[in-house]
Amino acid sequence: MCVESDGCEIEGCSSSDEVRTLSGSMSPGLKSNPDLHPCKPGQKFRAALLRCRSPAAAAGILSFGNVLNYMDRYTVAVFICSFMVAAPIFGYLGDRFNRKVILSCGIFFWSIVTLSSSFISKEYYWLFVLSRGLVGIGESSYSSISPTIIGDLFTNNSRTMMLSVFYLAIPLGSGLGYILGSSAKVAAGDWHWALRVSPLLGITAGTLILLFVPEPKRGSADQMGGRIKTRTSWLCDMKALAKNRSYVFSSLASAAVSFATGAFGMWIPLYLARAQVVQKTAEPCTKEICSSTDSLIFGAITCVTGLLGVVIGAATTRLCRQKTERADPLVCAVSMLGSAIFICLIFVVAKKSIVGAYVCIFIGETLLFLNWAITADILMFVVIPTRRATAVAFQSFTSHLLGDAGSPYLIGLISDALQQSYTTSALWRFLSLGYALMLCPFIIVLGGMFFLATALFFLDDRDKAEKQLSQLSRPPSSVKV
User: Fold this and answer.
1) Which of 223, 287, 391, 444 has its CA 20 to 30 A from that of 367?
2) Spatial distance between the Cα atoms of 95 and 471, rounded to a whole number of angstroms
3) Can you give the pTM of this predicted structure?
4) Which of 441, 439, 438, 454 is nearest to 333 (CA)?
């Protein structure tokens, strides 16, 4: 029996050699084999396919799938509970089985279920809710596993850049989801059409993953030329993550971001519509399907600010790493605290100027979105490769549980409670929602404090992960028994 340095049992100690690298080349031992013979036509096709499986192509395909993931999520979002429940399960599977097969099955599953749900009539609303829950199960597989493949294909600044590309999909997909949902609803007079666009693209993405995304050995980028020959148990993984202070604090900070983005996505378009009513530049909407202008503008701003935020965050972190090794959590902390200031200003200027409110939203969201890719990179630094899928899954679980799973409902509850005395007043409906949304900047400040706490422990936890990775990569004879 092998024993890890922290007392955890290690499963599957073996010393088997690699046969093929990510580029498709064979190990030196196989090149000298006299039994090698020319490739048959089918083998030539397979060899050509392997040459197309470059890390950059894989990152691009996974990013495309993530765009579809978030686009579908924000078209009709009612599946967050099933997403949270399924994420830890896929985290466990992603650390132990073939990841790209799980990814492909997940994306095929959610595409088929999404398309099927678009044909469910309102008489079977319960069936629609169930189908959206099943979509959450499929999408949780993607969110939990995809970043770990990128983590095993790249390292250091290259990994930061590729994770940034991957997480560009969040604002891009989210914004496209808002735009698609509102546009399809208005154009067709039926919101079901919003669910009939992405499934075909999803099936395409799943096929591309199967064909062109490699399945890198866990830790192959961290241990150049080697592989991890041991694996810890799930119970050991959970204990280690609970003791990992950088992971815990960065996960809580991520939940603060999720809280704000979930509340904003649900309520900011309505808040701005009410602001225009107060300014007497628009009439109150009494129809079942109202104008989607505010949703379209907010969706476009979300796309642009997300793209800017992720790019600026990656560039800033890369520059700051030359000054301090704690750059990752410090950049996140500063951006969160700056974001809180501009988000507070939204509720100050919205009564007088919609343009001013949009400017504050633009700057506030850009600063808020700076930390998406950086948070994932922090996880890659402080968690060993064989438990990264579990770590990503539980970080998603925490972010949704403490964040966007409840924030829209909580903001609505506070707003309704404040409205009770003056329900017929347009001004008070506007103000009550603004007062409720003021909770968001306070949560964002709390998230910034969590990132500062992460900075305190980041270097120690990174060094521990590197030492543990080195031990897990040793031959069995050198591991203590």
Assistant:
1) 391
2) 18
3) 0.77
4) 454
